[in-house]
Each structure stands twice: as structure tokens, then as C-alpha cells.
Amino acid sequence: MKRIDLFLSERELNRVCKAITAAGAKGYSVMRHVTGMGPSGEISEGMDFSGLGANAHVIVFVEDTVLAAVSKALKPLLKRYGGVGFVSSAEPL
């Protein structure tokens, strides 16, 4: 099983979540208003009120057989709208 962690603008959540589902993932979790420091600088809660938007963290668990389809669906969205994604191995408890 694989875990996909996505960090992206909340403005693009709808597009990304639809792509995840259409690619065959059975579900995902979303955490809104994510703050911190990244390669592009600091993301703070104040940015939400500035019109620049806040970030979100999307977590998706997929079987290895679905990973390629989900990655293929997400890469163009991340490239076009910004954001990053990471894949790691996951073992169920």
C-alpha cells in the first residue's frame, strides 16, 4: 500500500479530490488551513484573508495497482496550479 501526501492551495481542492476519485482511489482525507514553511516561503493563516488562499494537506492511501493512475491524474494539476506531492510506503496496523 502507498500513502500520497499532497500540499496545495485550498482553491484547487475540488479539482484534486475529483481527480483522486476518478483515478480509482477509494477515499482521501483533507486538512484545511495548513501553515508552515516551504521552498516558496512561509504559509500563514493571514494569507487566507489576503486573497492568496491557505494551503491544504490531502492524504490518500492506495493499493500499489492504483498508484500509477492516481499519480497520472494528479501530476498535471500540481504542475498547473502549484503544490507538491510525495509517495511513501504504508503498512496497515
Keywords:
93 residues; alpha+beta; 3 helices; 35% helix
Topology of this structure?
Layout: E1 2-9, H1 13-22, E2 29-34, E3 36-38, E4 41-43, H2 46-50, E5 55-62, H3 64-81, E6 84-89
Antiparallel strand pairs: 1-5, 1-6, 2-5, 3-4
Helix pairs in contact: 1-3
Describe the structure.
The longest helix has 18 residues, at 64-81. The chain is α+β, with helices and mostly antiparallel strands. The protein has three helices and six strands; from the N terminus they run βαβββαβαβ. The mean pLDDT is 88.
- Number of separate strands: 6
The fraction of residues in strands falls at: 35-45%
Instruction: State Rg.
Output: 13 Å
- Classify the secondary structure makeup into a structural class: alpha+beta
Summed up, the helix count is 3
Helical amount: 25-40%
SSE series: EHEEEHEHE
What is the end-to-end distance? 12 Å
Low-confidence spans = none
**Dominant shape:** globular
How would you characterize the largest beta sheet? 4 strands, antiparallel
Average the pLDDT over all residues and give the rounded result.
Answer: 88
Spatial order of the strands forming the largest sheet: 2-5-1-6
What's a concise summary of this model?
By secondary structure, the chain is an alpha+beta fold.
